[in-house]
């Protein structure tokens, strides 16, 4: 597997806004999740399903409120999901067997 992109900006085809903070987002800044965020993703997935869990993970990693993420266009969601799945599906390459 090639090296993972550690951060990625996803430009949104449709801006999303959060009423409470009066903030509008035209792009989502994503990065590698930390362990607690991945744990929260799996907990949410078991409780509420994959769509809800990925929305939570996108929110946690991007610091965009979950209520705003819920208004995201599906194509924007899928672009974020593809990036995040790279980390969730990651397995390091096997050791070459060479020892020092």
From TrEMBL:
Which InterPro entries does the protein's record reference?
A: Phage_tail_E/E (IPR019289)
Any Pfam family matching the protein: Phage_TAC_7
User: Domain of life of the organism in this record?
Assistant: Bacteria
UniProt name for this protein: Phage tail assembly protein
Source organism per UniProt: Yersinia enterocolitica LC20
């Amino acid at each position: 597997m090639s090296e993972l992109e550690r951060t990625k900006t996803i430009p949104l085809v449709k801006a999303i806004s959060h009423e409470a903070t009066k903030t509008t987002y035209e792009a989502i800044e994503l990065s590698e999740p930390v362990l607690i965020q991945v744990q929260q993703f799996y907990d949410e997935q078991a409780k509420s399903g994959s769509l809800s869990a990925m929305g939570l993970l996108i929110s946690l990693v991007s610091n965009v409120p979950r209520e705003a993420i819920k208004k995201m266009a599906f194509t924007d969601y899928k672009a974020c999901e593809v990036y995040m799945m790279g980390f969730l599906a990651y397995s390091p390459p096997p050791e070459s067997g060479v020892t020092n």
